[in-house]
Amino acid sequence: MKKKIKEVIVVEGKTDTAIIQKLFDADTIETHGLALTEETLDFIEEMNKTKGVILLTDPDYPGMKIRNMIMKRIPHVKQAFVDKKDAIGKKKLGIAEAREEAIIQALENVVSFSQNTQSISWEEFISLDIIGDKQKRLMIYDLFHLGYGNAKTLFKRLNMAGITKEDILEQLKNI
């Protein structure tokens, strides 16, 4: 019996929909990659009001661009991230190429961002010694299921997710 997801999952294409529906009892909306139209954005916004929406785009530049377009319209939309390392196929990078366990984990660890909180200051962020340490940065992205990005994006997402310096130190201590 497949697990039911009540929210509508926003994906980039047909193959993403196929894999989601193989793993879950869930509805999807396809953006057709970067060909995301105003009509589709309107529909996503409407679905977010009625059922809720989860963004699950490819862990690449176009996927990030689609995410940002939708977040401009719906700032508090729920998000699921599959790690780049778990989404590499033979010739492509994406949700359709991702390991099934990685997709399941992403949808079981959905995060919500709020735009106007500051849970960690820039000074606290710098004191964690993340900026020059890519391994540590990637570990923090993983620990909190925040996707992938540079240090500035991590700082922004930590604040949007309400994660404090103490939360980070506590998680790092458990490793």
Automatic annotation (TrEMBL):
This is Ribonuclease M5. Residues 6-98 form the Toprim domain. One of its GO terms (cellular component) is cytoplasm. GO terms for molecular function: metal ion binding; ribonuclease M5 activity; rRNA binding. One of its GO terms (biological process) is rRNA processing. Keywords: Cytoplasm, Endonuclease, Hydrolase, Magnesium, Metal-binding, Nuclease, Ribosome biogenesis, RNA-binding, rRNA processing, rRNA-binding. The keyword Cytoplasm applies. InterPro entries: RNase_M5, RNase_M5_C, TOPRIM_dom, TOPRIM_RNase_M5-like. It catalyses: Endonucleolytic cleavage of RNA, removing 21 and 42 nucleotides, respectively, from the 5'- and 3'-termini of a 5S-rRNA precursor. Its main location: cytoplasm. Belongs to the ribonuclease M5 family. The lineage of its organism: Bacteria, Bacillati, Bacillota, Erysipelotrichia, Erysipelotrichales. Its EC number is 3.1.26.8. Required for correct processing of both the 5' and 3' ends of 5S rRNA precursor. Cleaves both sides of a double-stranded region yielding mature 5S rRNA in one step. Gene3D superfamilies: 3.40.1360.10. It comes from the Bacteria. It is found in: Cytoplasm. PROSITE patterns: TOPRIM.
